[in-house]
Amino acid sequence: MCSSVQKALFEEEDRVKKLQQKVATLEKRNKQLRDRVKKVKRSLRQARKNSRHMELVNRKLSEKLSSAGGQIPYINSLKQENSHGTYLKV
C-alpha cells in the first residue's frame, strides 16, 4: 500500500513539474509577444506622427503655392532667351 501511495505522489510531483515548465514557457512567450506589441504600437505612433507632419508640410507648401499664384512662372511656360544653346569646345 505504501508503494502505491509513493508512486501516486511521484506521478503527481512529475505532473506538477511538467506544468510548471509549461507555465514558464508560456510566460516567456507571453513576454515576447508583449514586447512585440509594444514595438508595433511604438512604430504605429511614429508613423502617425510622421504622417501628420507630412500633411502639415504639404498644407503649408500648398498655401505657399496658392498665395504665390501668378508670381511663380511655370517651368513649361519659360522661354529661353538664347535657344540656340552654348557648347564648350574640348
TrEMBL record:
What GO biological process terms are annotated to this protein in UniProt?
negative regulation of gene expression
Keyword presence, Coiled coil:
yes
Top-rank taxon, per record: Eukaryota
Residues in a coiled coil are 2-50
InterPro entries for the chain: CCDC3 (IPR040311)
Q: Name one GO cellular component term.
A: extracellular region
**Known Gene3D superfamilies for this protein?**
1.20.5.340
Q: Does the keyword Coiled coil apply?
A: yes
Alphabetical UniProt keywords:
Coiled coil
Question: Can you say what this protein is called?
Answer: Coiled-coil domain-containing protein 3
